[in-house]
Specification:
single chain, mainly beta, 4-stranded antiparallel sheet, 3-stranded antiparallel sheet, 13% helix, 34% strand, globular
Length: 134
């Protein structure tokens, strides 16, 4: 039993050190949304996730492509963001008195260490378009 515990501990450490951090795939033919959780009081980034959805070809590019469903809390409420193009839920959370609400979707988040920090500027986009509807 002692050898089994030692082997399991060693294997766990090996896997956590050897396996790479999460590489988030951001496909060119998708819209990618990052959802990040930060500590309310300190603003420190704690965890996050990235969702990829099909590009919205008929969205208004002067606004975010979300349909927001907000149920104002008395004691209980919720907020939900649906991607306008497909109707897919991008974010859903309950709002409960005394900070007891929770994030229902997305249900998988990765620790802040899974994200890398870029110190260089991001490259310019291939195309840049601006439209004025006035």
């Amino acid at each position: 039993m002692k050898h089994l515990m030692k082997w399991l501990l060693t294997t766990n450490i090996f896997i956590s050190v050897v396996l790479p951090q999460n590489d988030f795939f951001l496909p060119d033919d998708s819209a990618s949304f990052g959802i990040f959780i930060c500590d309310f009081e300190t603003g420190v980034f704690e965890e996050g996730t990235v969702l990829n959805v099909p590009l919205c070809t008929e969205c208004d590019f002067n606004s975010f492509p979300f349909d927001v469903i907000f149920l104002e809390p008395g004691d209980f409420g919720s907020i939900q963001f649906n991607y306008s193009s497909t109707g897919d839920t991008v974010f859903y959370a309950t709002i409960i008195w005394m900070a007891l609400g929770e994030i229902i979707y997305p249900d998988t988040f990765f620790h802040a260490d899974s994200f890398s920090i870029e110190f260089d500027n991001a490259p310019y986009p291939d195309t840049l378009e601006y439209s004025n509807s006035n």
